[in-house]
Amino acid sequence: MTAVIQKVDYVFAENGLVSYKNGQLLCVQSIQAHMGEELLQDFINFCLNYMAKIKLPKKRGTFIEFRNGMLNISPIGRSCTQEERMEFYKLDQKEKIREQFVSVLKDEFKGKGLSFSIGGQISFDVFPEGWDKRHCLGIVEKDNYSTIHFFGDKTKPGGNDYEIYCDPRTIGHEVSCPEETRRLCHQLFFS
Q1: Where are the beta strands (DSSP E) in 22-154?
Q2: Is the pLDDT of residue 2 over 70?
Q3: Which of 174, 120, 179, 25 is nearest to 13 (CA)?
Q4: Tell me, what's the pLDDT at 69?
């Protein structure tokens, strides 16, 4: 990652809550400091209890990944193989495991200032309201860019790209894979 950070103006990780400008760390937001230990533990305990009751064909390790600006919740576990990941993804598309889990969490933690977004194939993110991918726009808009393009695959409501994809400060592009992103970038910027 160091090489990338040095080559571009900005790098945003974790919804932009860990950001770099010109190769230097700009800021880090902390979900732990924002939520407080009591709410954080209540939330984690609830998730672990809920996941213990889900019966899946397979479960692996790392069900909750604690990141700086968010929690990543994975019912199958982040330690699954690529084959297990695809198996879970197909099952989730049919049975809406993550969607149902998020719905339960929204009810249980209503009014606690939390947002949920389903992304990727095996997990969903939990973060404070306003800490979605649009967070980085507040940083780059200080540089007065005339156009900001965003490329994402989870651009429908509830997806982790939805808010920034629809934001009026960006031109959103829905893509399905890195190759499509590369092709579209070439078409837009190098033709």
Answers
A1: 24-28, 64-66, 71-73, 114-119, 123-128, 149-152
A2: no
A3: 25
A4: 87
